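Running this now, will post back.
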Amino acid sequence: MRHTVAAFFAAMAAAVALAGTAGAIPDQGTPEFDQYLQGLERNGYNLNPDTAWRVAHQACIGGIPGYINLELAAQGVIGPGAQQRVMDVARKYACPVQ
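Update: finished.
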């Protein structure tokens, strides 16, 4: 029983510690997110806000499930290295300075 309780509290501590990382990218509707969208637009990427948020999450934190590459292709991010370039722009404008 002690091991189960200890494992539970360890899992809770890890969840709380990682929750701060999830808030590292700007939320939609905030001035920081608007600046990020403007940065994308200055570099020629006109993404809808949901896709832009997922790109920022993928670029800054990684591991987001889904078809982000298909979403980007559907919004015109096509060509050799295009998806890597949009990720680089997202890292520049959305990721916090480490």
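Residues 70 and 77 are 9 Å apart (CA to CA). More later if anyone needs it.
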